[in-house]
Amino acid sequence: MTSTSTEVAVAISATGVRRSFGSVHAVVDASLAVRPGTVTALIGPNGCGKTTLLLMLAGLLRPDAGEIRVSGMDPRVDGAGVRTSIGWMPDQLGTWDNLTCAQSLTLMGQAHGLSKADAATRGAEQLERVHLSEYAKQPARVLSRGQKQRLSLARALMNDPAVLLLDEPANGLDPRSRIDLRHLVRGFAAEGRAVLVSSHVLAELDEMVDDAVFMSKGKTLGADVDAMVAKARAAYRIAALDHPALTWVLAAQGVEFVDEGAAVTVAVTSREHAAALLKSLVAAGVPIDTFGSAGSALEQTYLAMNEERR
């Protein structure tokens, strides 16, 4: 990634952002901050305003109110500077179906001011990075949905951006490609880029992100998320090599549990409580196989968030 002379502590920031379309209030009050070298998830149900917020951060929509800064620049004042700083991967990829993958990336590189030769070289590097080198000379129309997603990611990297905005990047990807995506996104952060990723594949986001911003009904959630996270982490699933021994010891210790057959689910009040429970089970000779939160932390928090806001 190309460095700038002025380092910014926050690569992406939004404060009190609003955007309406007539009588439809798509984003009511959104605030977030993403630091360089980190990956932040933007999470919420369909229609909560995630894509509208991403479009405003990308400089493709003007907010009705609030402040946005990308790499220290205001998209409303310095749109060209922001576009240079951002790599944008939309949910719906528009491809030039008659151009080859290499031609598509070369054209994008030239649009960002690279010479044709430099754009072609960088395009080849990005195709290799997203495992599409074998399709370099193939027209985009022959690609599957998942392969087009990877081409879209390569296209977002052509200007060597400091900031990456990824809207549902895992859509259409097979399991192997989703694993590759996790490694790629972590690699982007390791290079110092700030990554904001919106996705419904919450279990995979758990292994990918450093932080999360939750949205509901056009608003990003602030301090009340802490209580939701605590509620989300309250359920632990325990499995043992000797299931009857596990249930007997739990009952003897007065621990309430739900027996799922191959495992049990218990309620804990804190991580310290969970650690103490594990210690007591091991001390009682129960051969523990698995012990952890019931589901991914982001999934559990998301479910708790929706439960709170019904």
Summarize the structure.
With 310 residues, this protein is an alpha/beta fold. The protein has helices spanning 50-57, 79-85, 101-111, 116-129, 145-156, 175-190, 202-206, 224-232, 243-252, 271-283, 297-308, and strands spanning 12-21, 24-34, 39-43, 65-70, 86-89, 163-167, 194-198, 211-216, 219-220, 235-240, 257-259, 264-267, 288-293.
What does this structure look like?
By secondary structure, this protein is an alpha/beta fold. The protein has two domains: 12-220, Rossmann fold, CATH 3.40.50; 227-308, Alpha-Beta Plaits (2-Layer Sandwich), CATH 3.30.70. The protein is 38% helix and 24% strand. It is built from eleven helices and 13 strands. The strands form three sheets. The protein has a six-stranded mixed β-sheet with strand order 5-6-7-3-8-9, sandwiched between helices. β8 and β9 (219-220) form a beta hairpin. α3 (101-111) packs across α4, α4 (116-129) crosses α5 (145-156) and α8 packs across α11. The longest helix has 16 residues, at 175-190. The radius of gyration is 23 Å and the shape is globular. It starts with 11 loop residues before the first strand and ends with a helix. 38% of the residues are buried.
